[in-house]
Design brief:
The protein is α+β, with helices and mostly antiparallel strands. Helices cover about 20% and strands about 40% of the residues. An 11-stranded mixed β-sheet has the order 4-3-8-9-10-7-1-6-5-2-11. The longest helix has 12 residues.
Length: about 170
């Protein structure tokens, strides 16, 4: 590959046993928030290439165009659950920007280099995959394919706000 695979980092994700408690701590200690929270309806789920339904609760917050994510595994096998069992709570993956390559090219190139997808899925128009990069890169990389103009579904709720997102807060 002549062009870099990673052209930027868009997000850091923390895997936690309790999503609500973790986002509350991130808000109270570091001021990260407000948090949008979903229990997304996922499809096309695979773990290490094998169809495997799983579910999660996830929360996202934005600081200057950068997103923070907290994921709590719910049902089924997942690399989130494996991480919790093996290492406990903590930073699990970074979402990379890969402007030089398509989603398919990125997966093919990573697989060729010994880093195939460890988990994949689809949520509300977006395909996502986690690459098995923890060995060589010391962190899992996530990639995604999102159609132009895509908007996330409305969250199930916001923390610490009871109603709608405060005006001027990013949700992209």
């Amino acid at each position: 590959m002549t062009k870099p695979l990673v052209t930027g980092v868009g997000q850091v994700c923390i895997v936690a046993k309790d999503c609500d408690a973790t986002m509350k701590q991130l808000f109270e200690v570091a001021g990260i928030g407000p948090w949008a929270v979903w229990t997304p309806f996922l499809t096309n789920m695979r773990v290490r290439g094998v169809e495997a339904p799983y579910s999660m609760k996830l929360a996202m917050a934005w600081t200057k165009g950068f997103s923070w994510e907290v994921i709590q595994p719910l049902e089924g096998p997942s690399i989130y659950r494996e991480f919790l069992e093996e290492k406990g709570e903590g930073v699990h993956h970074v979402l990379i920007e890969n402007a030089n390559h398509s989603y398919e090219e990125t997966i093919a190139e990573a697989t060729k280099k010994g880093c195939p997808p460890s988990m994949e899925g689809h949520w509300a128009g977006v395909d996502f995959a986690y690459l098995e990069t923890e060995g060589p890169l010391k962190v899992v990389l996530e990639i995604f394919r999102r159609p132009p103009g895509h908007r996330r579904p409305a969250p199930d709720y916001w923390y610490p706000y009871a109603g709608e997102l405060p005006e001027g807060t990013a949700n992209d």
